[in-house]
Amino acid sequence: MGTPKVSEVFQETACGHNQAKSEKDRKKGCTKVATPGAAAGGCAFDGAKIALQPIVDVAHLVHGPIACEGNSWDNRSALSSGARTYRTGFTTDMNEMDVVYGGEKHLFKAIRQIIERFDPPAVFLYQTCVPAIIGDDIEAVAKAATEKFGRPVIPVNAPGFVGGKNLGNKLAGEALLDHVIGTMEPEVTTSTDLNIIGEYNLSGELWQVKPLLDRLGIRISACISGDARYREVASSHRARAAMLVCSKAMINIARKMEERYGIPWFEGSFYGISDMSASLRNIAALLVSRGAPEDLVERTEALIAQEEKEAWASISRYKPALAGKRALLITGGVKSWSVVSALMEAGLVVVGTSVKKSTAEDKERIMELMGEDAHMIDTMTPREMYRMLKEAEADILMAGGRSQFVALKAKVPFLDVNQERRFAFAGYKGMETLISEIHRALTNPIFQTLREPAPWTSGCRLTPLV
Predict the structure, then answer these.
(1) DSSP H or E segment with residue 384
(2) CATH of domain 3-179
(3) What CATH number is given for 320-451 in this structure?
(4) 193-315 under CATH 3.30.2310.20, yes or no
(5) Matching CATH topology for 3-179 and 193-315?
(6) pLDDT in tens, 335-367
(7) How much is the pTM?
(8) Can you tell me the distance from the alpha carbon of 125 to that of 61, in angstroms, rounded to the nearest whole number?
(9) How far apart are CA 210 and CA 212, in angstroms?
(10) At 222, which helix (H) or strand (E)?
(11) pLDDT per residue over 96-131, tens digit each?
């Protein structure tokens, strides 16, 4: 792994977290280096894979033991509107002989087999811990394969031990910047071409937003990387503006595309009614400043007025039942504040929100929403989560799937809001879905039954079986 590239990503100048550090601390990096083989589920490789796998028409080849591909495949419900190549798991399945003799020939053969059988527009090649330790040069193999087969082979040099998932996200962005973005020209361009960066189309969330942009005549030049095609990403340098959805993950792409290609960007959110409207306004204003028709702003306001009216009418029937209900939110990144905003719009009280993966700007937004006394949680063990659910008298826990068992133990309703979720919560329609799912969880009669004393503790006599 190239040390200069890792150091560059560690010291990302546009990262608010890094800006708050001293020069000495910035050189130390953002994250603790993990032990090889002991970083499953949150390593740099995992972060790179989940950031790029939503590019749906390319082949994603993992160079390493089969467990690396097995642990990373399908861990996010990123959906495709067409191509399905990304759903196939490709791996070199390295064994002991590869460790002894090196795995480069094995890797080259795997690339050839993929191109001959599946004919993808490109192959994304992921480095993992084992080949990185033994010295396999995936960049040299990728270059040789590109020349041999006339097909782009993109090296993604992010072995797990170099750091955590967030570092892997950024290293994936560097691979796109170095080998993909700017390598092709778009077939057509318009004055309203927009890049959306850091959106992965989880559960189809991009499709909640795209129809709104279509109605405004705004064309998504490329979504990096949800439901993306290789050509779209490769030609995305001709877009007129960009929206960054998650600054924690791919801020380096937004910053460098502005530096190299003059594409201005802003950070926004598609969660919640007010944040969705603010994002549409910012998109319209940015595009108009770049030459889009001036009536775009007026048309955007008309669309917002119509959509907000319909959304508020839809969720109003739930508000009496949700008013004053207390929610504990354990997520991170952009959702740490954008979901807070959505919940408060529905009348819920947020008793605490996780900021483990949030930037300084994210935390500032939380304080603006919840006040100076906002309960922001950096890390929380299951035992602490259980205690907080009880002490805060939370009515619902909103977190990732692994936390549902804490909620069940506390006899509290649970709603999955992380990447494993099966519901799309983005946009105006997504807000309606979010509120309806919260209402459904809170009114589920099973929790009232769970909280009642067991028959054998309340003096009831059980009828013996005959």
Answers:
(1) helix 382-391
(2) 3.40.50.1980
(3) 3.40.50.12380
(4) no
(5) yes
(6) 666 677 778 888 888 888 776 666 666 667 767
(7) 0.85
(8) 5
(9) 5
(10) strand 219-224
(11) 999 999 999 999 999 999 999 999 999 999 999 999
